[in-house]
Amino acid sequence: MLQNIEIMSTPADADAQAQAGGCCGGACHAPAPAADGAVSQSFEVEGMTCGHCVSSVTEELSGLAGVEGVEVELVPGGRSTVTVASDAALRLDDVRAAVSEAGYTLV
């Protein structure tokens, strides 16, 4: 399975991460066709603070049928944007369950 992981992070200090509840916790989900024929959907997830959080969410979403790639724009302690490329639009309930399995909640 093709997996594309990109972590984009904004600076945050340790105090901000601690106030955000630490490690491990969206949904703008209108599908849009990607240039190569894949469908791209973006979701918002709150509470991710580090690369481990990103890996957990990426691993769960990559396990969904048809997923070709996952990109995460990490905003430590804020709302991170997760973009999923797949061969067809994903069901929101499936995405919600995968993100929940990683320990987070869609917003």
Structure at a glance:
The protein is an alpha+beta fold and 107 residues long.
Count structural domains.
1
Radius of gyration: 13 Å
Task: Output the CATH topology.
Answer: Alpha-Beta Plaits
Mean pLDDT: 78
Question: Biggest sheet: strands side by side, in what order?
Answer: 1-4-5-3-2
Largest sheet: 5 strands, mixed
Oligomer: single chain
* Strand fraction: 25-35%
The name of the CATH architecture is 2-Layer Sandwich
- Which segments are poorly predicted (pLDDT under 50) over 5 or more consecutive residues? 1-30
| SSE class | alpha+beta
Describe the structure.
This is HMA domain-containing protein. InterPro entries: Heavy-metal-associated_CS (IPR017969), HMA_dom (IPR006121), HMA_dom_sf (IPR036163). Keywords: Metal-binding. One of its GO terms (molecular function) is metal ion binding. The chain is of the alpha+beta class. The chain has a single domain (7-101), classed as Alpha-Beta Plaits (2-Layer Sandwich). Helix content is 26%, strand content 27%. The chain has three helices and five strands, in the order E-H-E-E-H-E-E-H. Strands 1-4-5-3-2 form a five-stranded mixed sheet, covered by helices on one side. It is globular. The termini are far apart. Mean pLDDT is 78; it is low at 1-30.
